[in-house]
């Protein structure tokens, strides 16, 4: 089998969440961070013929980049054969028991308290502003009838802030994230936030979702 550019991009993104991955037979990819505060799942067009584990996903992807158009052969139980022309790579699978993998059960948001859309430009500008001003926090704030996304240092009253209005609301809230946890592929997202300290980011272009935990100091109502 061959991996599409989309599948490779998703795997590269997932490696930033957890550098190990347990891939299940079928066309779904799922990962969870070591701290278990970020879970991501995607459906791709490729179908994996078996379960397998990779301990160092970045190394695996860098190895694939040595080839132009590699073919992946999953016939062996203990390793993957990567083939292209006269070249062969034998890449051994990891023990699944050493991989921090997501729970089998699908995640459901306990409540859906606030919803908004975040386009690709908004996401790009927020991430860039957080880097430029060295701001650690991203907050979805509801006040004065609007929802705004703000990058800031919430522990510093004189911190620089960068804000973008993304919707309207009749509620008051401050849902706080760590910028370092917004490890999502660039693009547009439908965002749903639960006051039970969990959020769902759904990519509008790809079958791709992220569940990201909120910080405990978040407030609602």
Helix-residue proportion:
10-25%
Number of domains: 2
What is the makeup of the main sheet? Answer: 6 strands, antiparallel
The Cα radius of gyration reads 20 Å
Flag low-confidence runs.
none
Fraction of residues in β-strands: 35-45%
Structural class: alpha+beta
What is the name of the CATH topology of the largest domain? Proliferating Cell Nuclear Antigen
Instruction: Give the termini separation.
Output: 51 Å
Choose one word for the global shape: elongated
Mean of all residue-level pLDDT scores: 96
Q: Can you identify the CATH class of the largest domain?
A: Alpha Beta
Name the CATH architecture of the largest domain. Box
Could you tell me the number of beta strands?
16
Please give a structural write-up:
The protein is of the alpha+beta class. The protein has 2 domains: 5-98, Proliferating Cell Nuclear Antigen (Box); 114-220, Proliferating Cell Nuclear Antigen, CATH 3.70.10.10. Helices cover 15% and strands 41% of the residues. It is built from 3 helices and 16 strands. The chain has helices at residues 5-17, 57-64, 120-132; strands at 21-23, 26-32, 38-48, 52-54, 71-73, 79-84, 87-92, 114-118, 137-143, 146-152, 162-168, 173-178, 189-194, 198-203, 208-213, 219-220. The strands form 4 sheets. It has a 6-stranded antiparallel sheet. The longest helix has 13 residues, at 5-17. The model has no long low-confidence stretch (mean pLDDT 96).
């Amino acid at each position: 089998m061959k991996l599409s550019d989309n599948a490779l991009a998703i795997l590269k993104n997932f490696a930033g969440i957890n550098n190990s991955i347990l891939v299940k037979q079928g066309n779904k990819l799922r990962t969870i961070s070591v701290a278990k505060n970020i879970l991501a799942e995607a459906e791709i067009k490729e179908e994996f013929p078996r379960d397998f584990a990779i301990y160092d996903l970045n190394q695996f992807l860098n190895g694939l980049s040595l080839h132009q158009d590699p073919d992946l052969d999953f016939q062996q139980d203990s390793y993957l054969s990567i083939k292209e022309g006269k070249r062969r790579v034998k890449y051994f699978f990891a023990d699944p028991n050493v991989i921090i993998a997501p729970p089998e059960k699908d995640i459901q948001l306990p409540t859906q308290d606030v919803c908004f859309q975040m386009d690709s430009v908004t996401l790009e500008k927020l991430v860039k502003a957080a880097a430029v001003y060295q701001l650690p926090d991203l907050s979805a704030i509801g006040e004065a009838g609007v929802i705004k996304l703000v990058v800031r240092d919430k522990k510093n009253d004189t911190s620089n802030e960068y804000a973008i209005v993304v919707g309207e609301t009749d509620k008051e809230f401050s849902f706080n994230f760590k910028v370092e946890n917004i490890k999502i592929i660039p693009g547009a997202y439908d965002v749903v936030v639960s006051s039970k300290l969990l959020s769902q980011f759904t990519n509008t272009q790809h079958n791709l979702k992220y569940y990201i935990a909120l910080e405990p100091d978040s407030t609602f109502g």
